[in-house]
User: What shape does this take?
Amino acid sequence: MKKYTFTESKDTRSGFGAGLLEAGKQNENVVALCADLVGSLKMDAFIKEFPERFFQIGIAEANMMGIAAGLTIGGKIPFTGTFAEFSTARVYDQVRQSIAYSHKNVKICASHAGLTLGEDGATHQTLEDIGLMKMLPGMVVINPCDFNQTKAATIAIAQYEGPVYLRFGRPVVPNFTPADQTFEIGKAVLLNEGKDVTIIATGHLVWEAIQAGEELERLGIDAEIINIHTIKPLDEEAILASVKKTGCVVTAEEHNRLGGLGDSVAQVLAKNWPAPQEYVAVDDTFGESGTPAQLMDKYGLNASSIVAAVQKVISRKK
Amino acid sequence: MSVDINKLEQTATQVRRDIVRMVHGCQSGHPGGSLGCTDYFVALYFHAMKHDPAFKLNGEGEDLFFLSNGHISPVFYSTLARAGYFPVEELATFRKINSRLQGHPTTHEGLPGIRIASGSLGQGLSAAIGAAQAKKLNKDTNLVYVLMGDGELQEGQVWEAAMYAPHNKVDNLIAAVDYNGAQIDGATEQVLSLGNLRAKWEAFGWDVMEVEKGNDMASVVAGIEEAKSRTGKGKPVIILLHTEMGSGVDFMMGTHKWHGVAPNDEQLTIALNQLPVTLGDY
Assistant: This one.
């Protein structure tokens, strides 16, 4: 098992804030919008640097999506900022008609995704957003795993023409990917080569997958670990190459089992190379209040859940 | 600027012919609101707006128009075709398979003249505000127009946008409400009353004006000119455009029943007899 280390833990939303500032410096057409959550989205640095390119919308997310769509017509590259719940479910029709169907170059940047939002509870803990957004034709869906990768993704999507959903979170997590990485939309990152099982993880579950890989090594299981930061378009080639080698797969995500990364992987396998699959995901339920660690433990979204899923899926191999 | 009102009226008559023929041709679509807004569309595209039929989506250096109540697509399509955005013959494909003239306007099939999809109501004002703010960032002094239905004002997003535009001094924007008092299920006063519409928009901080005769070309032209003169003064401008649903076809007027119903063959003949050919049918 390849060794991964980190010197500090940081929140992915701060990676977004840093990336937004950098994207703004690189391209004067980059503008930002926020629905009264500037501090939570870490947009302060961008606003300080480019006050005339920032639009405070107020608590009006539907209007924010429409204004963002309109700004693209004049050649702007709008980055909208609010919580994931309010970036998707609350404004689904606006995103669908004014952005996706109209193919507008809007970057929908969504913080506090999933259970790790924590104490605010289920009203704010979206576990459906990946599914909602990946169903929209033409929408790119990205869920990076740490600060550095979120920063790189934010810079990369500014250079991509078309609608993007960028999902990140609230808590600090180990910052282990390289600071100088180039982010390639739709390209899986192979974290560890192995032969017994493929673990495909996204977002906060990527570090948990690495932890699981170390535990599995102690148990004599050689896990291949893939970081899928882009859920759509999905790197089918990387997935198939790995599963053809290992013969089984565990998917891991901070999302409902229905509609998430696991579903996308299952569809690729069903069409091309049927193989046993286990899901580390929320089992079709809402979340609740608690600390992020408590919630990830209670809902089975951590390294030990991945280890258990690996053992189960290996036992299903023919 | 001298205005040939008679010529604009002739164009409007042809657009009305196009509308009833289009909805008859596919036996679906929304003739009522289309006929009611015909004079406004013709006044915009054949007089008031600076625009180029050699369509560029970014609309740099031009006035822009957004249709929020996308179901009145027949009047939008006919106006665009008659203004030279695409061949008038293409109007015959309205709502048919493989057409660029979808039931509701969209950029998806690349129809020149359309800058964003609309149809699901309440979204056009927000998009127009965004386009207007982009013009300001780009130091483009041209204007942005948006038309909404009055029933559409029942959508909450409209009022999010209504609150935003005055706060941000989006004064390069002219909104209009097709104030015909009717929606699918009946009179707006019965379905969900709009109350004192002028007072509502004024309370939100808009410069509100009314065009009482929204189907009289001279009044519409004068109203739009007046609205233009009020731009650039720190407030967004809105025109309450009093129209009659079905205007120009007697049996479609005075009722909400022709909101989204197509005429049969006999009704088409009666309607066309009231709308003489002026520019030639498609």
